[in-house]
Design goal:
The relative contact order is 0.19. The protein has one domain. By secondary structure, the chain is of the alpha+beta class. It is globular. It has two helices and two strands; from the N terminus they run ββαα.
């Protein structure tokens, strides 16, 4: 895991260069369980 600082309230989560969540797109900060569910779904593909 790596935290890459940004500005402007941008919060994005990527796994293996695949964007799985973007606060910039949704306007909402994710709940932990939502990110974990997306990670698990990606792992099950």
């Amino acid at each position: 895991m790596e935290l890459i600082p940004s500005s402007g309230g941008v919060f994005e989560v990527t796994i293996n260069d695949a964007l799985i969540y973007s606060k910039k797109e949704t306007g909402v900060f994710p709940k932990n369980r939502d990110i974990i569910a997306k990670m698990e779904a990606l792992n099950n593909e």
